Amino acid sequence: MRIAQLCPPWLAVPPKGYGGIEWVVALLADGLVEAGHEVTLFATGDSETKANLEYVYEEAPGSKMINDIVLDTTHTLFALRDARERFDVLHLHSPFSALAAGVETGVPTVHTLHGSFTPDMTRLYSYVADRAWFVGISEAQKAFNESLRYGGVVYNGIDMDFYRLQEEKDDFVLFLGRAAPEKGWLRAIETAKRAGLHLVSAVKIAHWTEEEEWEQRIKPALPSDSEVMGEITQEEKVDLLRRAKAVLFPIDWPEPFGLVMTEAMACGTPVIGTPRGSVPEVIDDGETGWIVDVEDYVEQAADRLGRLSEIDPHVCRERVQRLFSKEAMVAGYERVFERVIATG
Amino acid sequence: MRIAQLCPPWLAVPPKGYGGIEWVVALLADGLVEAGHEVTLFATGDSETKANLEYVYEEAPGSKMINDIVLDTTHTLFALRDARERFDVLHLHSPFSALAAGVETGVPTVHTLHGSFTPDMTRLYSYVADRAWFVGISEAQKAFNESLRYGGVVYNGIDMDFYRLQEEKDDFVLFLGRAAPEKGWLRAIETAKRAGLHLVSAVKIAHWTEEEEWEQRIKPALPSDSEVMGEITQEEKVDLLRRAKAVLFPIDWPEPFGLVMTEAMACGTPVIGTPRGSVPEVIDDGETGWIVDVEDYVEQAADRLGRLSEIDPHVCRERVQRLFSKEAMVAGYERVFERVIATG
Fold first, then answer.
1. Taking CB atoms and an 8 Å cutoff, what residues of chain B touch A78?
2. Within 10 A of A223 (CB to CB), how many other CB atoms are there?
3. What's the pLDDT score for residue A317?
4. Residue B93, Cβ neighbours under 10 Å: how many?
5. Is B105's CB within 8 Å of A104's CB?
6. Chain A residue closest in CA terms to B75
7. How far apart are CA B12 and CA B259, in angstroms?
8. How far is A109 from chain B (nearest CA, A)?
9. Could you give the CA distance from residue B92 to residue A127 in angstroms, rounded to a whole number?
C-alpha cells in the first residue's frame, strides 16, 4: 500500500522531549516500512524515520507552536498536493486542516483519535463523522462516541526492545503521571503508606490546577521518605519502571489508552488500576496486575501489594507483546487500511 | 450562480465593532443577492445578511478567538459538507482550513487576499498557488506576488448611502489609522503645523510598538490645539470624514488597499497620499486629492492644503461610485466568478 502518514508540524518524529503522538507515529511509520509498504511521513525535517520524509519546516518549532493555524495549514497544503495520484490511504494524526482537506481528496482518510472527546472536539468530529474513518485507541474510547464511522480500534504500540524485562525488583512502588486530581496521585500516596512501602513519584506539574493539587493536597499528605521527581527522560522512566515492584494507576477519568500501563507490563511490572476508560482492556486482572474500585482503592490496592508474588513478570510482558507492541499496532493498522481501501 | 461566501467564524457579518473583512463580506453578500444570485453565507449566527445564513456558532466569539484552530476547522467542516452538489463557486475570505479543503472539493475556489504578503503567508500560498483562484484588492498587491493564479483584481467596495457627500467643510484636517510608524502619523502632525491648520487624529494604539511611537515620537511633536481620539465608531468616523477639509494619508508601506481613502472621497473629502501600495490606483492626482513624495511629504502636502479649492467634492464621490462602491465590487466579483467557473 502507498500510505501517507501526516503528523502535525510542531514536534519531530520521534520527539526530542515530550510528545506521545509522535512516538506512536515513529514506531508505526517504521513498522509499516518493515512490513513492505511504501510510506511517506509528513513531519518536520529533524525527524528520523525509515519512511520517505517530506516537510516544510526544517526544524520542529516546538510545543509553544502547537495548534498554530498558519503552520497547520501550510503543512497540510504541502502534504496533500497530488494526494489523489500518490497515495492509497491517508492516515492523519491531527484533526485540523488535514482532516478538513483529507476527506475532500477522495483518498480514504483515516484519523486516529489520540485525544479525548471534549465538547469542542465532539462537535468538530460531528461534521466529518461519516466522511473520515476513525480509529479508536481503545474499545472504551470508541464506546464513548459511537456516532463516528470507525475503521477499527488499534491500541498504541511500544518498542519491546526498549522496555526490557526485569524480574528482580527494588523496594519501591511507582506513580507516574501529571498532578491532575483525576490521575489519583493522592490515592497512590495513601496506598503506599497503608502498605508500608516506599513510593517514588515522577510527576509533571505544569497547569495551575496541578500546582494547586500539589500545594494543597499532595504536600501535606506526603511522608518524609517519599521521593518525588519532576519530568524525567525516557531512559529514566524505563529504569524506574523496570525496578519498581508495582505501578499504581489510581485514575478516576475515562483515560483513552494509558501508555504507562503497557510500558510497565513490558518490563514485567504489574499495574494496579481502576475500572475506568481503557484500564480493563489493558490489565488482565489477577494476571498482569489488578483492577480495584476507585472508591476503595487505598485499601484494596494495599491488599494487592501484599500479593505481588502471584504475578508472573513473563505473563505481563507476553500480554504486551501480543496486544500492545509495535508489531501488534502495525498489524492492526494494516487491517484498518485494507478495510477502508476496499470500502473506498 | 450558486455562491458560497465563507467568512472566518470569529466576528459577525457585518462586525459589531472592529472588522474590515467582515464589512466587505456583508456588502458583497447582500449585493450578490440583489444581483439575483443564490448566495449562502457561512459566518456566525448573529450576522445580518440577505444571503442564506448558515453557522455553527450562534454568537461571534470575538477577536480574542481569531485564528483559533478548533473553531476554524469546525466551521470549515460544517460549511463544505456537500459543497460539490450545492455550489458553483466557493469564495473564501480566510486562508486556513477552508482554503486547504476548498481546493480539494473540485468546486472552483476563489480566495481574496485581504492581508499582506508576510513571509509566512507567502510560503502558505506558494503550496496552493495554482489550485486556488486568487483575487487581489489592488493591482499593486497583485504585482507584489505574481506567482499566484489570479482570478482578477477587485477593489473593496463601500456603501455609498452610508458615506454621504458634504460640500461645506469644517476647519480641520484629519488623520485616521494606527499609531504604527509606517502609517505616518508624525508626518501628518508636521504637515498640519506647517500649513497652520488644526489636526484631528482618530488613532488606534494597541501594539507595544504603537505605544512606543505614541510616547517617544508623537507626544513631543503634538501641538497643544491638536485633538486626539482613540478608537471611534463607524458613525463617528463618517462624521469626521464628512466634515474634514482633507484627509492626510502619509503612509510609507505597501498598503494593499486603504479603505479610508475611498470613505473620505465618497464624502467629497480629498486625500493627500504617497506613491505607495494601492494609493496611485485610488487617488486621482489633482482631481480627488494629491500624491506627493514620502520624503518630502510635509512640505508638498502643506502646499496642497493651500490649494484645496481646486478639488471638486462631486468628482471625488463620482470616482468612488465608479470604482470603489459596493456596486463596482459586486460587478467585479461577478466577472471573477464567471471566469473561474468557465475555466473549471
1. 127
2. 10
3. 98
4. 22
5. yes
6. A124
7. 19
8. 13
9. 19
Is the pLDDT at B4 greater than 80, yes or no? Answer: yes
CB contact set of B250 (below 8 Å; sequence gap of 6+): B183, B184, B187, B188, B191, B272, B273, B274, B294, B297, B301
Q: What is the mean pLDDT of residues B227-235?
A: 90
Q: B153 is written with which cell numbers?
A: 483584481
Residue the block writes with cell 505481588: A308
- Furthest-apart CA atoms within chain B: distance in Å: 63
Q: B-chain residues within 8 Å CB-CB of A67?
A: 69-70
Residues counted in chain A: 344
Inter-residue contact B238 to B162 (CB < 8 Å) = yes
Nine cell digits for residue B22: 467582515
Q: Do B69 and A70 touch (CB under 8 A)?
A: no
Mean per-residue pLDDT over chain A, rounded: 96
The per-residue pLDDT for range B85-94, each reduced to its tens digit, is: 999 999 999 9
Nearest Cβ partner for A127 among B74, B120, B128? B74
At A224, give phi and psi (nearest 5°): -65, -25
Q: In what order do the strands lie in the sheet with A199-204?
A: A227-229, A199-204, A173-178, A246-248, A271-273, A289-291
- Angle (CA) B245 B246 B250, round 5°: 155
| DSSP summary character for residue A325 | B
Q: What ipTM goes with this model?
A: 0.92
Would you say A178 and A204 are in contact if contact means Cβ atoms under 8 Å apart?
A: yes
Closest Cα to residue B7, out of B37, B36, B40?
Answer: B40
Task: List strands edge to edge, sheet with A133-136.
Answer: A52-54, A38-42, A2-6, A89-92, A109-112, A133-136, A150-153
Residue B63: the pLDDT is 86
- What is the band of A206 on the pLDDT scale with cuts at 50, 70, 90? confident
With a CB cutoff of 8 Å and minimum separation 6, the contacts of A243 are A166, A169, A170, A172
DSSP category for residue A309? G
CB–CB contact A69 B72 (8 Å): yes
Confidence of residue A23 (pLDDT cuts 50, 70, 90): very high
- The cell numbers describing A73, all together, are 495549514
